[in-house]
Amino acid sequence: MKSQQRGEFLRKILDQIRNNSYPYDGREKPETDWSNYDAAQCREIIDVINMIREIVDEAASRIALRKFPEPSGPGRPPNEPADVVKVLMLQSYFGVPNRPAEGLLILFSDRLGIRNSFSYKTIERGYDRQGVDELLDEIFRLTNEQIEGFETTFSVDGSGSSASNKQNYRQSRQNQRNKNSSKSEPGEWPKEACSGMKDYQYHLAIIGVHTKMFAAWVTNSNHRKSEHSIFPEAMKMAMTNQPSMKMLLGDGAFAGRPQCNIVDSYGVEPVFLPRRNVTFHSMWSRSWPKMLGKILRDPQRFLSEYHMRSISETGFSMVESENPQPLRKRLDARKGTEDYLRGICHNVKRLCYLRYLWELIVDFRRTRPAG
Question: Is 161 helix (H, G, I), strand (E, B) or coil?
Answer without folding.
Answer: strand
